[in-house]
Each structure stands twice: as structure tokens, then as C-alpha cells.
């Protein structure tokens, strides 16, 4: 596979040669992939680019892409665009230039890809991996808390390291996500790229890494705001996925149906009819409302249209009759045992039981996935 190692740099002149040597040493024995290196430098004032240019004279598979400083996320995207358009990259490897990422593990990344991984994550938080002992306590806390919020907040707890920048991924994830990713910067870029790739079905494999503190130069990423940004991301994504989830929509539609059902029941009781009749009529009207709203919204991606709707409505109604019978039966049994005045309690119980019945039939039968 044609692989491109993308190394973003900003003022890394003291590190870059050591890193390039390390990458070439580690990858020269690898035969299964044709590897090139692309340094994406944001015209560093310390003239990192000059050092790379002189290195290129002896190493034909080292490339340099210059740009203006727009942050790490943008630099990576620019590097990947160049990798795809000019270098024919099928696989990207991403690593920091400051010697925090040990190139010796690169062959392991490639082996994971060969075994079918789509997205390899260099992980500090699995057995065999580590964060620097000499990191200040606040930095350790930021990193651990940030990663824990993301892991459990997004609900993909099998991935342990979300914010690191030592990764390998197939080009498809860049191709499909590039326009979506421009709005994320810094650590959020790393989180969003991995998260969105997983949502597209990427098989993630973590390889343990020891993260060493940078030896030369200065850190560029400020931890301030970091936890807040991570928290906002997780919250926003969670709300989006909840709103999109069919069970949430089913509950909203069901609440509307419940209101219709209740108003009819109470109206019938008030004009002197038996609650069983009120309950069943209300339930039927709620069924009609549920069918229309679930079809238009809850299961919109499996929407039933045209003449099939008539047949489906009959099927839906038949299925929902189960809920009507459950509700009527619960009210009948309850009021027979505890007197007519207890009907509200058994109405609620019947609604609860009917809800389980309905959701199961709607998602498995009426709007079943094909
Ligand atoms: N091209 C480019 N590279 C950047 C930019 N910001 C950071 N980098 C590079 O991205 C990598 C990671 O940045 P670092 O500053 O090391 O961030 P960090 O690893 O979180 O923090 P320290 O290791 O403490 O410095 C390094 O190779 C940087 O040179 C940027 O705006 N443009
Ligand atoms: Mg670093």
C-alpha cells in the first residue's frame, strides 16, 4: 500500500532530523508498504523548513509542504490533501515531530493495518503504554480526565486514547470526512476524526505507546479550555445522537398519542361512558396519529410511501390492537378488582405495557430494516 507519514511541524528544527532518521530506520525493513514522509511546516520562524530541505537532498522519499500557520488540524488536512492528490496516498500515518512518538512502533501499526484494521491508534492508556512520569500533575490530570470523558461520554469505551496524534488510517476516512473536519482544531480535531471514523464503521486497533515528553522546543497546545471544549463536543454529539435515535422519537410520538388517548378517555368518562370504551376509542385514535408521525419522522429513513401505506396501516393497526387489548384488559382487570375509581392507575400501567409491545413490533415488523 502507498503510505504517507505526515509530520506537522512548527518550530521543530532541533527535533526534525532525529525524527526523520528514526522513521526511515524503522521503516526501511518494511516491504509490504511503500512509505514516504511528508513534513507539513507552517513556515516556522526557526526555519525548520531549511533543515528539511537539506535533508531532502539525500532522501528522495521525504517531501515538504509549506503553508501559513492555521493550527494543527488544518496542517494535517492540508498534508492529507497533498498526500491524496500528489502522492497517491492510500494510507496515512500521523505523528508529532517533537520525538514524543517513537518511530520504532511504526511496523506494528502497519502490521495492524495488514491484519484488517482501518484506524490504528497509538495508545498511552492501555497495558504497555504510558504517559511521561515527569509531566506536571495538572497535565496528567487534563489528559486522563479528557480521555475518560470522551471514552465514556461518546460510548465507545473500547478505545482508550482519543487525543494523541500518533495514528495510522486508511485514506477513505480522510476522503469522507475532510469537509466535516475543517471546523475542529487541536485536540478536538483528533477526537472528532477518530469518533467520526468509528461512526463510519472503522475497525479500530490500539497499539500501546510510551509517550515521551518533548526534549527540545516549546509546546504549542494550551491545555486551558481543553476540558471545556472536550465536554462541549461530547455533550453536543450525545444530544445529536439522542435526537436522531428512533427510540427517542418513538417516545415523543407516543407522548402525543398518550395525550390524545387521555383526552378521549376523560371526555368519554365525563359524558357517562365506561372507561373501557373511552380507553379503547382513545387508543385507536392515538394509533392513527402514531402511524402518521412514526412514518414521517421516527422511521423516516425506512418511510412507507404510496399504495403500500394502506396495507401497512392495516398491519400497524392490527399490531397496535395488541396494545389496545393490553390497555383495555389492564383497565378491565384492575377496575374489576379495585373498583371503577382506580381506572387511572390501571390506564397508566396498560399504557406502559402497550409501549413495550408497540416499539418491539414497530421496529421489528412494520418498519423493519431490509
Ligand atoms: N504545521 C503545524 N504543526 C503544528 C502546529 N501546532 C503544533 N504543531 C505540531 O504538532 C505536533 C504536536 O504539537 P505539540 O506542541 O508537541 O503539542 P503537544 O504534544 O500536545 O504538547 P508538548 O508535547 O508538550 O509540546 C508537533 O509536531 C508540532 O510541531 C501548527 O499550527 N502547524
Ligand atoms: Mg508534543
Provide a brief overview of the structure.
This protein is an alpha/beta fold and 370 residues long. The chain has two domains: 2-241, Spore Coat Polysaccharide Biosynthesis Protein SpsA, Chain A (Alpha-Beta Complex), CATH 3.90.550.10; 245-363, no CATH class.
CATH topology of the largest domain: Spore Coat Polysaccharide Biosynthesis Protein SpsA, Chain A
User: Order of helices and strands, N to C?
Assistant: EHEHEHEHEHEHHEHHHHH
- What hetero molecules are bound to the protein chains? guanosine-5'-triphosphate, magnesium ion
CATH homologous superfamily caption of the largest domain: Spore Coat Polysaccharide Biosynthesis Protein SpsA, Chain A
CATH architecture of the largest domain: Alpha-Beta Complex
Structural class by helix and strand composition: alpha/beta
Strand content: 5-15%
The largest sheet has its strands arranged as 3-2-1-4-6-5-7
Layout of SSEs?
Elements lengths: L1 E8 L6 H12 L6 E8 L6 H9 L5 E5 L5 H14 L5 E4 L11 H9 L4 E5 L13 H17 L13 E4 H11 L4 H14 L4 E5 L17 H19 L1 H25 L4 H24 L9 H31 L4 H24 L4
Parallel strand pairs: 1-2, 1-4, 2-3, 5-7
Antiparallel strand pairs: 4-6, 5-6
The chain binds guanosine-5'-triphosphate (GTP) and magnesium ion.
Guanosine-5'-triphosphate binds next to strand 1, strand 2 and helix 3.
Task: Supply database-style keywords.
370 residues; alpha/beta; Spore Coat Polysaccharide Biosynthesis Protein SpsA, Chain A; 7 strands; elongated; binds guanosine-5'-triphosphate; binds magnesium ion
Amino acid at each position: 500500500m502507498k503510505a504517507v507519514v505526515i509530520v506537522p511541524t512548527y518550530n521543530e528544527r532541533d527535533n526534525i532530523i532525529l525524527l526523520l532518521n528514526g522513521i526511515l530506520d524503522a521503516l526501511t525493513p518494511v516491504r509490504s508498504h511503500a512509505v514516504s514522509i511528508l513534513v507539513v511546516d507552517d513556515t516556522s520562524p526557526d526555519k525548520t523548513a531549511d533543515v528539511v530541505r537539506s535533508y531532502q537532498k539525500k532522501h528522495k522519499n521525504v517531501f515538504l509542504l509549506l503553508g501559513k500557520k492555521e493550527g494543527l488540524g488544518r496542517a494535517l488536512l492540508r498534508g492529507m490533501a497533498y498526500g491524496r492528490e500528489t502522492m497517491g496516498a492510500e494510507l496515512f500515518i500521523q505523528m508529532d515531530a517533537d520525538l514524543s512518538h517513537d518511530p520504532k512502533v511504526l511496523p506494528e501499526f502497519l502490521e495492524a493495518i495488514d491484519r484488517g484494521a482501518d484506524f490504528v491508534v497509538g495508545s498511552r492508556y492501555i497495558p504497555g503504554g504510558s504517559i511521561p512520569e515527569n509531566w506536571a500533575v495538572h497535565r496528567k490530570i487534563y489528559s486522563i480526565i479528557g480521555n475518560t470523558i470522551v471514552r465514556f461520554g461518546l460510548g465507545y469505551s473500547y478505545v482508550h486514547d482519543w487525543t494523541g496524534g500518533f495514528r495510522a488510517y486508511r485514506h477513505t476516512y480522510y476522503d469522507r470526512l475532510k469537509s466535516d473536519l475543517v471546523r475542529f482544531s487541536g485536540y478536538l480535531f483528533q477526537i472528532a476524526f477518530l469518533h467520526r471514523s468509528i461512526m463510519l464503521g472503522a475497525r479500530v486497533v490500539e497499539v500501546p505507546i510510551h509517550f515521551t515528553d518533548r526534549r527540545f522546543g516549546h509546546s504549542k497546545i494550551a491545555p486551558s479550555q481543553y476540558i471545556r471544549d472536550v465536554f462541549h463536543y461530547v455533550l453536543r454529539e450525545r444530544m445529536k445522537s439522542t435526537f436522531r435515535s428512533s427510540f427517542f422519537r418513538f417516545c415523543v410520538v407516543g407522548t402525543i398519542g398518550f395525550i390524545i388517548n387521555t383526552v378521549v378517555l376523560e371526555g368519554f368518562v365525563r359524558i357517562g361512558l365506561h372507561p373501557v370504551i373511552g380507553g379503547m376509542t382513545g387508543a385507536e385514535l392515538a394509533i392513527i396519529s402514531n402511524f402518521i408521525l412514526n412514518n414521517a419522522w421516527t422511521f423516516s429513513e425506512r418511510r412507507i410511501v404510496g399504495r403500500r401505506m394502506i396495507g401497512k396501516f392495516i398491519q400497524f393497526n392490527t399490531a397496535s390492537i395488541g396494545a389496545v387489548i393490553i390497555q383495555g384488559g389492564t383497565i378491565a382487570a384492575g377496575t374489576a378488582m379495585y373498583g371503577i375509581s382506580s381506572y387511572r392507575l390501571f390506564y397508566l400501567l396498560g399504557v406502559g405495557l402497550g409501549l413495550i409491545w408497540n416499539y418491539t413490533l414497530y421496529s421489528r415488523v412494520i418498519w423493519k430494516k431490509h
